[in-house]
Amino acid sequence: MAQGRKGNLNYRCPRCLMREIDMDMLYDRDKGEYYCLRCSFTGDEREVLRLNAQFRAKYRDRIKRITNF
What b/e sequence results for 7-23 when a residue is b if at least 16 CB atoms lie within 10 Å of its CB, and e otherwise? Predict the structure, then answer.
């Protein structure tokens, strides 16, 4: 999904990403948190980065060919 505006990086919604839906989050400057329009997830930057790191750890070996079990 392309980013709508220039500037800071748009984060992907971690809850939607776990369900393999690519949804950008919007930032609320008054509250200082990110929110998703699709699933109503809200969280600060640290929480979003933590959950996105969990997603990357889950799929880190996705492109590797594993021959030994």
Answer: eeebbbbbbbbeeeeeb
Residue 56's identity, in one-letter code, is: R
How many percent of the chain have pLDDT more than 90?
35
pLDDT at 5 over 60: no
Instruction: Measure the CA–CA gap between 42 and 34, rounded to whole angstroms.
Output: 6
- Dist. CA 13–CA 35, nearest whole Å: 8
The residue type found at 54 is Q
- For 31-46, give the DSSP string: TTEEE-TTT--EE-HH
